[in-house]
Amino acid sequence: MGSATGGAAGAAQVLEVLGKHAGTLAVAESLTGGLLAAELTAVPGASRTFRGSVTAYATDLKRDILGVDGALLGERGAVDPEVARQMAAGVRRALGADWGVATTGVAGPDPQDEKPVGTVYVAVVGPDDRGKVTALRLNGDRADIRKESVRSAFVLLLGELSGNERAQDTEENGGN
Predict the structure, then answer these.
(1) pTM for this structure?
(2) Is 28 exposed, middle or buried (0-12, 13-18, 19+ CB in 10 A)?
(3) d(CA 17, CA 113)
(4) What's the CA gap between 65 and 22, in Å, rounded?
(5) What is the pLDDT of residues 4-40, one digit of tens each?
(6) Domains of the chain with CATH codes
(7) Residue 108, by phi and psi: left (phi above 0), alpha (psi -120 to 50) or beta?
């Protein structure tokens, strides 16, 4: 996406697209531990669209702060596609944003919840409250997995923003 990690370039692009439609963004992070928020806030003017973040590293915070279903967490653990979707929906709701993004996964060095290192789920939930989740199987060390998770979150969000942008253009121009 432009830089070696894709972070700053991806963040700038996300914020630019959001800014065109006066959209706002909030992020919920687990394995990325604030890296997504750091990339976003590194972009000058981010405060126009970026509302904030919740780093919910502990499972109980995913439940208590982000509203992830406790039974789901108990049954499947924190590394799960539906957990990622609920995290994104929860941070969107909690921070009053149009878009919510979430990351959850296993950065290593050890497996978690019987999931191997490199198992990551990235989710985006938009204004229509529908979500999209991407499952990743990443290689590399802990730092590599976390960086690639951030890059993948920006790619997923940009894809959803582009789809939303096309839908708005069609809606605005279609009936005339």
Answers:
(1) 0.90
(2) buried
(3) 36
(4) 26
(5) 344 566 999 999 999 998 899 999 999 999 999 999 9
(6) 7-171 (3.90.950.20)
(7) left
